[in-house]
Amino acid sequence: MTTKAYARDAGTTIDVLFEISDAVNRTFDLNELFDVIHKSLSRILNVDNFFIATHNEENDSIRFDYWVNEIDAPPGVITHFSNTSSITGEVINAKKPLIFYREDILNFAKAKKAPPIGSPCEIWLGAPLEIRGRVIGAISVQSFTSRTMYQPSDLDLLNSVSQHIALAIERKQSERAIKNQQIILEKILELSPVGITLVENQVFKWVNNEMVHLLGYNNKEDFTNKTFNMLFASRDEYDRVGTTIYNTLAEKGRASLDLDLIKKNGTVLHAHVQLSSADNTNPLAWIIVSINDISIRKQMETETIQHEKLQAVLEMAGAVCHELNQPLQAILGYSELIMMDQEPDSQLFRDLGIIRSQTARIGTITKKLSEITKYKTVDYPGQTKIVDIWGSATTLE
What DSSP assignment string belongs to 10-43? Predict the structure, then answer.
């Protein structure tokens, strides 16, 4: 057990600080980094009792992320930290390195009307972990055997090391925050009722589950390293649409259009596609694509068109029936009157019978017109189509 301060020279101190700085830049795991710092510091400072703690200002707690101690076990998370007799709290509040001897620790605890936290030591040094004026914790060394283990000048060394540790903790916190944001964003995208994909240079890089479902695929791996043209009926169609998308993205950064995309089973998905690009100079480098299934909308549009056509036919049919019924009734009436005065075997009687028969046929046609319930057409000579009154009408009993 060491009972006196370490002797060190400036060269060794610089080497240790360089080691710690290098470790901060190349080590991404905090526990591994703290081990390296502890080992490096041991070359120039007694670190038999050493800890790194982080402070949560929101819930007023402190957690000991790294702990080496000859006597005491790790204290765990200390809540209501401001009301305790912890001298670590004094360093955090003071925002500067502090040194305490045994009597200082006992007097501080007495003033707080609380027992000391941990076993009282002979000497205790602490430095704040500070990031842009905000203290996020502290680093400390202490000795249970000798009050001369450390010198006041050691506070400067400890403070230098604390700055490296604070930088590493800030980086790790930023990484965690980014990762959490990524998780939240991915959950939002996964729960979206819209198909969403990230495309790099026309190659799928990420798709959400709704995208897989809309296009009838089994899993996301079906899109891995596949090109966007897999969703089009032909290369020509893809090139045509691609030119439109490229020009629109280059001009506006966004594009929106209705497309018929091809599903895995070869059927058509009527889709509204929205695309967004952040680089107008290379609009297809990275684009976000969202796909909405508009099949129901398409069906409703078709039904609306059919209804409008049917309405036009009904109006036309009503007008025709109205205009034809009275002349037809007159023709039938006069034909019957004339036939009453003719011999059944006369030519006139037979001609009037034909007129009466054809008039009745016209009457049947007008009745069919009045019974039209759907719009249907048939081919007619001359490369045209006409309304199929026989297939469009439903006989009303």
Answer: HHHHHHHHHHHHHHHHH---HHHHHHHHHHHHTT
Residue-wise pLDDT for 332-389, tens only, equals 787 788 888 788 888 888 888 888 888 888 877 777 766 665 556 666 676 666 656 5
Q: What is the DSSP letter of 74?
A: P
Cα 46-49-50 angle, rounded to 5 deg:
90
pLDDT, tens only, 288-312:
999 999 887 776 766 666 667 666 6
Q: Which domains does the chain have, with CATH numbers?
A: 10-178 (3.30.450.40), 195-293 (3.30.450.20), 298-392 (1.10.287)
CB atoms within 10 A of CB 375: 18
Helix-, strand-, coil-residue percentages of the chain, each rounded to 5: 50, 20, 30
Whether 100 contacts 123, CB under 8 Å: yes
How many Cβ atoms are within 10 Å of 376's Cβ, its own excluded? 18
Q: What pLDDT score was predicted for residue 3? A: 47
Tell me how far apart the alpha carbons of residues 388 and 385 are, in angstroms, rounded to a whole number. 9
CB-based contact 229:238 (threshold 8 Å): yes
DSSP 115: P
- The answer to whether the pTM exceeds 0.70 is no
Q: Under a CB-based contact definition with an 8 Å cutoff, are residues 50 and 42 in contact?
A: no
d(CA 108, CA 129): 22
- Its sign, for the CA torsion 163, 36, 72, 78, is positive
In the block, residue with structure tokens 């000391």: 116
Give the separation between CA 66 and CA 79, rounded to whole angstroms.
Answer: 18
223-261 in b/e form (b: 16+ CB < 10 A) is: beeeebeebbeeeeebeebbeebeebbbeeeebeeebeb
